[in-house]
Structures are given as C-alpha cells and as structure tokens.
Amino acid sequence: MLPDGTEREGGVSMSRAHELRLVSRIAQMYHKEGLRQAEIAQHLRLSQATVSRMLKRAVHEGIVRTTIIPPPGTFGDLEDCIRSSFGLSEVIVVDCTEDREAAIMARIGEAAAHFLEVTLQDGEIIGVSSWSQTILRMVENVHPMRVGRAAYVVQTLGGLGAPNVQDHATHVTMRLAQLTGAQPRLFSVPGVAPSREARELLMADSFVQETMSLFGKVTLSFVGIGPLSPSEMLARSGNAFSEAEIDQLAGAGAVGNMSLRFYDQKGQPVRTRLDDRVIGMTLDEMRGVGRHVALAGGRNKTEAIAGALRTGAVDVLITDKFTASRLVQMQVQGQEHATL
Amino acid sequence: MLPDGTEREGGVSMSRAHELRLVSRIAQMYHKEGLRQAEIAQHLRLSQATVSRMLKRAVHEGIVRTTIIPPPGTFGDLEDCIRSSFGLSEVIVVDCTEDREAAIMARIGEAAAHFLEVTLQDGEIIGVSSWSQTILRMVENVHPMRVGRAAYVVQTLGGLGAPNVQDHATHVTMRLAQLTGAQPRLFSVPGVAPSREARELLMADSFVQETMSLFGKVTLSFVGIGPLSPSEMLARSGNAFSEAEIDQLAGAGAVGNMSLRFYDQKGQPVRTRLDDRVIGMTLDEMRGVGRHVALAGGRNKTEAIAGALRTGAVDVLITDKFTASRLVQMQVQGQEHATL
DNA sequence: ACGGAGCCTGCATTTTTATGCAACCCTGTG
DNA sequence: CACAGGGTTGCATAAAAATGCAGGCTCCGT
Questions:
Q1: B154 and B44 part of one domain
Q2: Are B56 and B125 contained in the same domain?
Q3: How many domains does chain A have?
Q4: CA at A221, C1' at C13: how many angstroms apart?
Q5: A225 shares its domain with A324
Q6: pTM of the model as a whole
Q7: Pairing mode, if any, of strands A220-224 and A261-264?
Q8: CATH number, residue B298
Q9: Whose C1' is closest to the CA of B50: which nucleotide?
Q10: E strands along chain A, which residues?
C-alpha cells in the first residue's frame, strides 16, 4: 500500500472491476431500460458488436440471470425427466387434484385437446384409436376449427361388436372429423374378429381397404394406453378376449396395449394368435406415424404406459402428475437394478 | 362439479392453464436449452412468429424474469439517481474504502482512465484542464494506445506561474498526448494573468491563439471540480487569488469552479473581475464540448460538484460512492425544500 | 341470421442481433 | 529484437427475432 491508499499491484483486478461496472451498466440499459444495442453503442461510443459481446459476457459472468418461474400446476421437471429418460419428443404432465381415473381422464382430455388445437397443421391426416375414454374426453374439449384444417380423421381400430361401443367409436371419429373440418374415414369392422379367417374376409372389403391404406399416411395419431386386463369398455363390448387369451398374453410378459397391440415391460411386441384377429393399426405402423400421441394416466396403467413408451412408437405422452411421478420413480428403480 | 370431477364452467381458466404451460415450455426451450425460435416452432408445429410472441408473453406474464445482479463495488442505483436528477448523460460511481481525498482521487483516476480508453473515438480532440490531482491520476492510469488514436490533446487552462505547477500542467498534457498518440497543444501562459491587460497581451500570441482556436472543437474534455477555497495546488502555485477575491466570489454566492470558472449553487456563472484574468476555457465553451467529463470527489467538494452539475456543462461525472450519496441526499433535501 | 369489433395467426419483411474475418495489440519467448 | 500466440476490435454480413399486414375466427349486438 502506498500512503494514499493505492495498491501498486492492484491494476489488473481494479481494471476488471471497472470493466464489470461497464458490463453491468450495459446490461441495465439493455434489459431494464429496453434500449437497443445500437443505441447503447452510440451512447457509450463503442460498436454494436462490442455491446452484443458485453451482453453475452454479462450472462457468462452471472451478472444477468434469467429465471423461469413455472406457473402453478405445471411440472416441467417431471416432463423433462420423462422426456429424456424415455427419449420422447414431448411430454405433457397435467395437474390433477386426485389420483382417480375419471378426473385424470378429464384433465388429460383437456390438455390433449389444447395440444391438438395448437399443433395441428393444415392437411394433416389424424388417426384415432377410437375407444378410449380419454380420447373421448379429448374430442369433447376440442373447439371447432375452420373446414379443411385437417384432411382426414382415420379410425385406426375397428369399432367393437356391441352396438353401444360401435356408436362410441363412430361418434369419436365423426365428431373429431367434424371439429377439425376433415373427412372422416370410418372403420366399419369389429376391432377383434371372431377368427383369423373372419378377419381376412372383413379386410377384403374395399371400404376397409381404403381406410387401411391411409394408416401409412397418418401424420398425427392419438391412442389410449390400456393395461393388460381388459378395460371397462372392452369388457362391456362383449368380452372380446377370452380368459385364456389374457392368460396367454400375461404368460408372454405383456404389460399393456395400444389399440390392442400388446407389448412387454421392455416395449417388445408380444405376438399371440390374438394379433391375427385384431383389425387395426399395428405397432410398426404406429412407429411410422409422424407424431404418435399417447393419452393415459392412472395407477393401474402405470406399467402399461412405461412399456408403451419403450416400444419406440410414442412421440408424445400426455399424462397426469401422479402417473408421471410413478413413471419417474419406476425408471429410477429400473436403472438402479440395471447398474447392479 | 360433475360426478367425475370435471367442472362445467372451468373451460376458460383451464384452457388458460394449458396455454401457460405451453408458454412456460417454450421459455424453457428458449432460455434453458438455448434453442432458436425457429427450432422450437418446428418442434411444436407453429410459426416462428408465434414463438416470438409467446416469449414476449412469457415475460409479460412474469414467467421469465431477468435479474441483473450488480457486481460488488458497483453503484447502479446511485448512478441512476444522480444521472436522472441532474440530467447527465453518464455517471460513474467508484467504490472506495475511505472517504479521504487521496484514496478517492486514485480511484476516480482509474475509472476515468478506463472510461477514456473504452470510449475514445478515432480523431477526437481531447481537452484537459491540466492542474487537477485527479486528472493526473487518470493520466497515470491510461494505457498507451496506437498513434493517431486521438488527434489532439489540448490544454484548456494555462499552467500557473510557479515552475513546479507549470511542470505539472505540461506533464499532464504531454503525457496524455503521448498515451493517446495525439499531438499535444500546450498553453504556455499562466492560468491567471496578473491583470486584465496582461491577459490581453498574452492572448495575442499566435501559439496561444492557435491552442484557443481548438477550444471550440474539443470533443471530449476532462476537468476537475474545485471548491471555492483554493486547492492545495492552487495555493502552492503562488496564491494566484487574493483573499479579497475569494471573499468577493463567496459574496456573490460562488460554490466552486471548473478550470477557475466559478458558479453558484444553482449552477449560474458567477462573474467577477477574476474572469478577465483567467486564461482558459469558459463555461460556455465547456457546454459546447461533446462530452465534458468532470472528475471529482471528496467531502469538501460536494457542494462544488452539485453546482457544477447544474451549470449544464457537465455530461459525465465520475465520483466516489461517499460523495455520490451526499449528492443524492443533498438533492433530496433540496427538493423537499422546493416543495414546501 | 348477419355484420362488425377485437383478437389471433402465418407470411413476408424489416429490424435487431450475432458472428466470421482481418487487422491489430500486448505478451512472453527464442 | 523479431515473432508466434492469444485476445481484442470494428466491419460487413449472416442469422435470428420482431412486426406490419391481411385474412380468418369468435363474440356480440342488431
């Protein structure tokens, strides 16, 4: 120290302090006062490029920090976690007060409707796996759009035999087509044919053929994810699967299905003779869809969802916060297991 | 509430929640993941314009917030306050451990040197009011630049009579010219002529004329601010002013000077016969300078500084934090007074 | 049911920002 | 002392972001 309080060796750090002051001042002008870089440059007699670099430096030095305050009822961290650990394109986790099927479906439906409205492109070919409650909820929440927004709405799984379910399937497809201003492409066959032969026969129909020819062209599809044990609707439909068939699937390790295409815990397809009776999109076809959106939530579907995500067919998952946390937890445990 | 937990009327706010989720997600992608708006748009199937608007909305809704963390030792608030209340273009407040003249001058000098280095344009004509300690400190801290960076360094106040001070004045000017690669323009006359007539005589010199002709062309000038009572150097210089003259100035309300041009508390010039003996830039000429930078700090100069800022001649003030707070406080009190 | 105000969208364009480049300067080294 | 190497800068330009505009939709009021 010199008598006047100056340090001899302090030059560098001192100069740095002055630089930081300048950086900070520029940040102030830019972010708080809303000035353009060029204006700041002019005011301070330096080039716009330098101002730009100073601002970059301000971020680097931690002088400016941008925080994202997630609005309540959003779960960015859960979404991130699921997105990255299952390699999905997008994940939407919705808030939900109780972990009950009905409430969850309603919320997921809303979110899916919003997703559809926001991201639907002109001329898309939409696939709907028509008999999921959740998808019905989605359709109920879609606002009508101008005609011709989407090109087709294609039913990707036959309506089941029983009339009430037939109605449901048809209704969902027709309604969605109407709302998106698209042409509906119904699939007037049972989702599960009585036999392999019956399936062949049904699929020979030219109407059916026409619809199926669109499967490969679907750009956006919505499916529910079903657990192994038959859903309420499936059961009501007239018990399409026999007890024995379920057992067979279980034995082969199946954990769930999308449009009645089953897969195991690891996402591997579980092929049984049942496949030869189902009339609808296959897992491979789902994989080929530009954006294959799965809608599902609920305690009993957790395993089914995890498996579905591992099939590689799902691009977007919309689920609830409870199920989302279970998925994350499951994934963590799985990894621990794998590391051992 | 419906039995499944859905609300009938909740549509709007619910949809809003989904929108906010999207906005938040976009903010995440943009700020955290560093994606381009176009990439986000592509990923989410919407236009880049929409993404831009969403991001603006994110700021508006308070989802993204950018904070500026001022580096320690910076005083943005003080600077703002002084800048706005005195209508200055820039204010630099430097950190300083003690409220002592010598330490303050050293710090201000450093800051001024940095300011000079950063903001000096090619071909500028720099004015220096050569006999302030603070300006000497500045010059000591300037790093040499390539030749021709500045065009001229003009001495804006005569060097005083006594040889040591003469040297000081010359040294400052020459050194700064050397450092900035400019041509020096010395002012080889006393700052205070013995009489009005002597002044006329001295100013007739062609060298002197030449230097003075540059006064109107100075683009950047540095002055110290002096209190009413003579500074140490002024005193040492051979007591250029008489006791009587000081009294006269005080009687006229003078509170300080820049280059021996005095003004009162309100910044109004205080003209006395002294003016006819001073050889140097006038207040009006200072006002005409593109960037007139005043360097000063210290308890005994506070009033002088406040007055100087009100002359309208000062564009940039560089001072210390102690003096800065005193200025702010003074200004606040002044306003209270005015409102009564 | 019709028509207009208000709002939102995407497109095309402008405005603003970032960056490759060449020149330059300081520094440390052979 | 010359010179390579790392780090600046400003300029020109590419890249990215913002915005005016026109068309279309929704919501009201008539």
A1: no
A2: no
A3: 2
A4: 36
A5: yes
A6: 0.85
A7: unpaired
A8: 3.40.50.1360
A9: C9
A10: 64-68, 90-94, 124-128, 150-155, 183-185, 220-224, 226-227, 254-258, 261-264, 291-295, 316-320
- The domain of B34 spans 11-60
A235: its two tokens: 């059961």
Q: CA A60, C1' C15: Å apart?
A: 26
The pLDDT tens digits along chain A (340 residues) read 333 333 333 334 557 788 899 999 999 999 999 999 999 998 999 989 999 999 999 999 899 999 999 999 899 999 999 999 999 999 999 999 999 999 999 999 999 999 998 898 888 999 998 778 899 999 988 888 877 778 899 999 987 666 666 788 888 999 999 888 888 999 888 888 888 899 999 999 988 999 999 999 999 999 999 998 766 555 555 556 777 888 899 999 999 999 999 999 999 999 998 888 899 999 999 999 999 999 999 999 999 999 999 999 999 999 999 999 999 999 888 777 776 6
B64:A61 CB<8 A:
no
Amino acid letter for position A47: S
Do B227 and B308 have their domain in common?
yes
Structural tokens at position A248? 């067979």
For chain D, which bases have at least one atom within 7 A of a protein Cβ?
9-12, 16-20, 24-26
B108/B102 Cα distance (integer angstroms): 10
Contact B76 A24 (CB under 8 A): yes
Whether A7 maps to a domain, the answer reads no
